[in-house]
Amino acid sequence: MILLMLMVIIVLVILGLVGGSFVNAFVWRFHENKNWVSGRSECIYCHHQLSSIELIPLLSYIGLGGKCHYCHKHISLQYPLVELFTALVFIVSYIYWPVPIKGVQVLIFILWLVVVIGLVALIIYDIKWMLLPNSIVFSLIAVGLLMAIINLLNAQNKGTMTLNYIEACAISGGIFYVIYVLSKGKWIGGGDVKLGLLLGLLVATPEKAFLLLFLASLIGSIVSVPLMLSGKMKRKTLIPFGPFLIISCFVIELAGSNILHWYMHMLIYR
User: Average pLDDT for residues 157-171, to the nearest whole number?
Assistant: First the structure.
């Protein structure tokens, strides 16, 4: 069993690094309106097409010393960090998946890994360009709906689960929509509303949806308050909220039930 687990982790590390490499290439090509399916990877500075050996995730960056082989300009740390982060999320997802990964859960887990790649792409895109592209979000919603349908088909109480999905989406997407309308888009963007809908579909229960919003706000405060106190960020400085929501989604998806159980235990025995 331990040997099998180690083998799965090794495979997930490789898949995660490859997935992170795909995210790096996809985000740049998507923003530059290049063909992200058949287009060739190239240096963003000298535009020299990269050879196959220069496309090996993480190892190529290390082997090249973090510099382009042709123009010798420094390659952004974004590339290895995104690859490592994606691999890390893959591994943690496997270790802390809330239910045994067997039967239909194997398919659910595979779809989750696909969603992870898309969410990491949204994190990078939102950080770099303060935008959550509709085509990426809607594609992930389609995958999320497929996961929901599979879960519903295998649920004992389909009515309760359906209601949970509806309430979760209404909470995470609806609250953002109200804020978006009231602020006329000044406090939160329309992309965050659609992202909230997607994440509500993923966390799947109203309790986890509320926890998602709370945790995202908490992480946002932990990041922004020190920056404001140090003068590196002003009160009116716009910061992307999407990454905080997505990081929170990763936490809630894998540990949400445990967090809620701990909280209820604290309330009862305080």
Answer: 96
Beta bridge partners of 49: 42
- CB-CB neighbours of 103 under 10 Å: 10
Q: How many of the other CB atoms lie within 10 Å of CB of 161?
A: 17
Q: What is the percent of the chain where pLDDT is above 70?
A: 98
Judge whether residue 37 has pLDDT over 80: no
pLDDT at 38 over 70: no
Burial (CB count within 10 angstroms: exposed 0-12, middle 13-18, buried 19+), residue 5: exposed
pLDDT confidence of residue 270: 61
Burial 18-38 (b: 16+ CB within 10 A, else e): bbbbbbbbbbbbbeeeeeeee
Domain boundary assignment for the chain: 1-95, 99-270
